[in-house]
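OP here, attaching both records as promised.
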Amino acid sequence: MQLTSAQAWSRAEAIARNHPEKALNAFESLLSCSDLKGMAHLRLGVIAARAGRMRDAVAHTLASASAQHPDPEFQLMLARQLADLGELQSALGCIEELGVLDGIDPSVLANAGKTLADFSFYDRAEEFLVRAARAGVRSAVIEYLIGLSRMYCGKIGMAQESLEACLRIDPGFAPAMRALVTSRRQTADNNHADRMRSLLARVGDQHAFAPLLHYSLFKTFDDMGDERTAWTHLEAGMRLRRAQISYDEPGQRALFDALEQFAPQQCDAASDVTGAVPIFIVGLPRSGSTLLERMLCTNPGVVDAGELRDFVCQLRWVCDSIGGPHLDVQLVDRAKECDWTELGRRYLEHTQWRAGSAGFYTDKLPANSMVAGYIAQALPMAKIVHIARDPMDACFSNMKALFADAYPYSYDQGEMARHFLWYRRLMSHWHEMFPGRILDIRYEELVAQPEVGMSRVLEFCGIRRAPGIDFATTRLDGMIGTASTVQVREPVHSGYVGQWQRYRAHLGRLQSQLGETEA
C-alpha cells in the first residue's frame, strides 16, 4: 500500500530517531515527493551541518529555499538555517515573503523580527516587531527588541519609550535597563541607579543578569564622574562575566601563531572582478572603526554594509569546514589548501548586493584583522583600512564594554593585554607579507584632524571626495548596529582620547603587561 505524504514523513522521522545512521537515506528517499522535497532538503542540510559538511549543508538548504513553502513557520525556520550558513540574501528573501502575507500568525511576525534583529537588520526588524505587537503579541522581550531596534536606527526617544514599556511588563528585565543607560548620558538628576541597585540586591551576583547590571552601574557612575563607585562595579562585572564564559587562552595563542605562518601565494585570484569594491575596516573592537565607517559613508559613493561575517563563512565553504562565525586553528590548517580565487568570488557574490548602485561598500567586522592577509590574498582589488588606537585606551574601552558572544578575552586585564600584543604582532606580520595593501589610520588623528585623516583614507581607497562634505561637522545618522550607536552620532571630537587615565590607579596590571610606561 502506498504511503501518504504524512505517513512517509513520519516514517522517515522514526527511522532518523531510532537509527541515526540511516537518517541520510531516509530523507533522501523523500526527494522524489514534490510536496516533501523542500522539507527533506532542509532536514538533509541539518544532517550535513552536524556532520561538518559545509558545502552539502549549503546546497541542501538552498535547494529547500527553491521549493514552495506554504507554511510560514517552516519558511521562518528555513530563513534562520540559511542565515546561519551565510546565505543572508536568500534568508532575507524568505522573511520578506512572510511580510507580504495576509492573515499571518502574529507570533510568526514576532519571530521573524527576532531573526532580523539577530542578524543586525534592525530597520526591518522594527517593522515586523511593531506589526506583531499591534496584532496582540505583547511581551517584555518584544518591547525590548523594538526599543533596541529603534535605538540602533537613531530613534532614541521612541526607543526609550519602548524600553520603559518593557520594564512596565517586567521590572526585572535587566537588558532593557542596560539599553536605557546606553541610550543617553546619565546625570545625578536623571539616572536609573536606584532601580538597578534594587534589582541587583534582589537577584544577587550569581544571577545571569548580574554582570549586565554591574556594567550598567559602571556606565552610570562613570557618566556622573564618580570613578571610585564606577570602578567597583566594573571590576565586579568583569569578574562575574569572566566566570560565565569559556575562554581558551592557549588555543587563542595557537591560533595567532598559526596565522603568522601564512605567506602570500601565487594565484589568479579574482582577476576578472567587476562591480562594487569592498572596503574592509579592521582593528581591535572599540578602536574607532564605527566612526571611521560612518565618516567614510558620508560620501554618496560608499554604502555602509556593517559588520559582515561573510568572509570567514565563505572561507568555511571553500574549505568545507562547518563551524561558527569565528576563526579557529582547524580552519587555518584547512586554509593551507584554499582555493583563493573561489574564496574571493564567493565573498563578492554574497556581499556586493549590499552596495546597490554604489561603487564601494564597507565591511567593518573588527575580527577581520585576524584574516587581513587572507583578504589581501583572495581579493586583490579590496581596500583594507586598519584603525589603531592608543593601547591603553583601546584595551580599557574593550574592558568597559559588555559583549554578547564575542571577545571573551576582554574581562581580565592580563588576558586583555596579551590578546592586544598578539593582535599587534599579527598586524605587523600582515604588513610585512602584503606591503602597501593595508592603510593604518590612528583614531587620535581621525578625531583631532578629521579632514587630514579622511583625505588619506579616500586617497588610499581611490574614492573621489564628493563636494560639500565637512568631515569635522557632519552628523552621522542612519542605522548603526553596534554598541557605539549613540556615541558616534555625536559631532566628531577628541573627548574619548586618554579616557583610561581616569582609572589609572586600577589599571596597573594592564599597563605593566602592555609594557606601557606612559601612553
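Record two, same layout:
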Amino acid sequence: MKTRRPAAQPHAEVPSLWFRFRDAAFFAALFLILLLRVDPSLIHHRQSPVFLLASDFAAGFLSRPGGPLEWLSGLLSQALFYPAAGAALLTALAWAAAGLTAALIRGLRPSTRGGWVHLVPAALLTGLHACYTVPLSADLGLLAVLAASAAFARVPSKWMPRLAAYLSLIPVLYYLAAGFFLLFAVFCVLMEWVHAKRPAAAAVMTAAAVLIPPAARYLFILDPSAAWLSLLDFDRTAMATACSVLLAAFFPILLLLQTPALNGRSLIPERFRIRSPRLRFCLQTAALTFLAAAAAVFPIEKNNRLVLTVDRMARFRQWEEILRLASKEARPPLTVTFQANRALYHSGRLLDDLFTLPQPFGPAGLTLPRKFSDSAPLQESDFCWDLGSIDESRRWAMEALSTDGETPWNLKRLSLAHFVLGDTAAAVVCLNRMDRGLFLRGDAAAIRRMLRDSASAEADPAVRHGRSFPGRTGFIAFNGHTSAELDSLLRDHPDNRMALEYRVATDLLAGRLKDLPDFVRAFRGLGYPRIPRHVEEALVLRWALSGEKEPPPETRAVAPETVRRFGEFNRILGRHRGDRAAAVADLRDSFGGTYWYYAFSRQAAGRRAPARSSENRGSR
C-alpha cells in the first residue's frame, strides 16, 4: 500500500514586532555613528550656519526657488552645534526618509510587508553628512521628493488624475526644493512609462519639467546652473558624490525593477528563493548590519575630521586638547601644525616644546601661506587678533563676510574689532544683527554692556588684549615675508611677546641663527626668567658652528645641562662616521624633541633625497 507524504508545514511568519525592533536597532546604530564617528558639531563648525529672526533675512530666502528649504535648513542646523542634539536631528531626518521610502514602496506594491530596502536611503544620508560640507537642505530636499512621490503613487491610475496631480505638485516642489524637483520628475515619468505604459503622458510630463527652469530664470533672474541644479551641487568630494549618485539612482532603479528586492519574484530563480520568512529576516538583518558598518567605517575622511576638530578647538581656545591630538600625528596637515603651534604659544611653551611636535612645513607651519589664508579668512583673523594686529584681524573678518556671508563667528569678531578700534557705529550695526540671531543674543548683550560701561570692557580679556596694541593700522599679509612683517609689529610694540616668539621660531625653523644674540637681549628686556630651551640649543649649535673656543657672551647664560646634552648628541653623531640615515634613527629616541635633531634631520633629508624634498615643498 502506498503511503501518502505529509503535507509541507507552512513556514511561520515573523512577528511585526521583530521588524520594529530591528528598525529601532538600526537607527540607534546610526545615532551612535553620527555622534561618535561623524560628530555633528564639526558639521556646524564647517558650515557656520547663521539664522536671524528678521524679515529681511527670511525675505532673501523666500524670493528664490529652494529658498524655503534653505531657510528651514538654517533653522534646524542650529541644533548641530550640540553633538547629541545634532545626532538626534540627523537620525530623525534619516528615519523620516526611511518612513517615506516605505510609504512609496507600499504605493507601488500595496501587498509589501516588512523588508529592509526602505532603510538604504537612511544609511546613504549618514554617509553624505560624514563629508561635513553637505547642508541639511539635502535631507529636506530628499524628504520633499519622497513625500511628493509617495502621494503621486497613490493617485488613481487613470491618466487624467495622474497628470493633474503631477502638474500641481511639480511647480510647488520646484519652488520649495529647486533642483530636487528633477528627481520627482524622473520618478513620475518612469512610473507613467514603465508601470502605466502611457508614453504620451510621460512625454507631457517631461515637457512640463523641461519648461520650468527656463521660466524660473526669467521670473527669478537666475543663471542656468542655479535654475536647474540649485541645492543639488552641494559637494564635490568623492564620498559625497558617490552617496548622492546612489541616492539619486536608488528610487528610479527601485521603480524600474518593480521592487524585486522586496519579494524576489523577478530576479531570483524559483529554486533559489528563500521559503522561510525567519531565515529571510535573518539574512536581511545581516545585510542591514553590513550597511550600518559601512556607514561607520567608510565615509569618514580622517584628515578632514582632524582639521575640523582642531580648528573648532582653537576657536574655543582648548589648547591642551589640540596638543594632545597633534602629538599623535606623525605628519599632521598644515593647518593642524599651524593651530598646534598657536596652542604651544598660548600654553607658554612655544620656544621650549616647538620641536617636540612634527614640523614638516618649516616656517609655513607658523603663519599660513597666503593661498591658505585666502581660503580660511576667519582663521587668519583669529591669528592676527592674537598677534595684536587688530585692524588686520578686522580686515580678514570682512574678507570672511564677503566670501562666506554672515556667520556667528565673523559677526562676533567684527563687532569686537570695531569696538576695540573705536568704530562704535559699525559695532552697533553688527550687534543689531546678532540681536536677531539664535544663540547670539547673549554675546551681543555682553558687548553692549562694554559699550556702556568702560569698567566691564577692561575686565574682558579679549578687549584688554586688543587695546594693549594701539596704533597698528597698516596692511599685514603673511605671504612669504614673515620675518619682515613680525619685525614691523615689534617696532610698533617691542613688548609684543607673541610677535617676538614667532619671530624667533621663524628663524629656528628656517635655520637662521645670526640674530640669536638680539633675541636673547629682547628676552631679558621683557623679563623672561630664563632663555627658552630651544633658543639655548640654538645658541650652543651656533657657537659650535662658529669654531670659536670661547663661548660668546649670550651663550654663557646657557644651562650647563644643555651644553652636556649637546656633547652627548655629538658623540652619538660621531659614532656613525658620516652615515646620516643611521645617525638620524639613533638620535631620535634621546634627542627627537630638540632643535639639534630638527636641524640635523632637516639637513640630512635635504642631502639624502633632494628630489623628494623638492616634491614635498610643492605639496604644501
